[in-house]
Amino acid sequence: MSLPRCPHCRSAVNPAWFARCIGCGADVPPAPPAPPQGRRQVPPVLKEARRDTNGVFGLLVLVGVLGILGIFTGARQGVLLILSSATGMVGVVAMIAKVMHVGPRSTGPSCLQLAGAVVLCGIGLLFGAGILLGFVCSKLGD
Ligand SMILES: [Zn+2]
């Protein structure tokens, strides 16, 4: 499955995930150009991963909201932020494992799987930053 390319810098961008080019920030064509051989089907692994991702993200949003509420309610906000970010990271790691899972017949992860893992790693870094922020908040609270 080929991804549409950014007209400016030729980076491959999945418009289902990104509204803008990862490389240069330019607008990405909303829909991929029609594939020549009519291969429009999403690989089953990704479908499954996306379904799981939806459920996990619902949970993460809930945990994240609790963490944010903790920030605004004052005491122990750092601890809550660390807890929610750590929970988020666990979820992201689980999703990476899910996305990168390849069947016994497969020779290795596809480009799309790798791209998904890279995106999830990015999200994981955000949660990592949340943990650091939590520690900073804890220090400031003392
Ligand atoms: Zn670009």
Task: Considering the chains and any ligands shown, give keywords for the structure.
142 residues, 2 domains, binds zinc ion, globular, mainly alpha, 3 helices
How much of the polypeptide forms β-strand, as a percent range?
Answer: under 5%
Mean pLDDT: 74
Helix content: 55-70%
What's the main sheet like?
A: none
* Rounded Rg: 18 Å
Number of self-contained structural domains: 2
Number of helices: 3
Report how far apart the termini are: 53 Å
Q: Point out poorly predicted stretches.
A: none
- The topology string of helices and strands comes to HHH
Q: What small ligands are held by the chains? A: zinc ion
**What characteristic shape results from the CA principal axes?**
globular
Alpha-beta content class: mainly alpha
What's the count of strands? 0
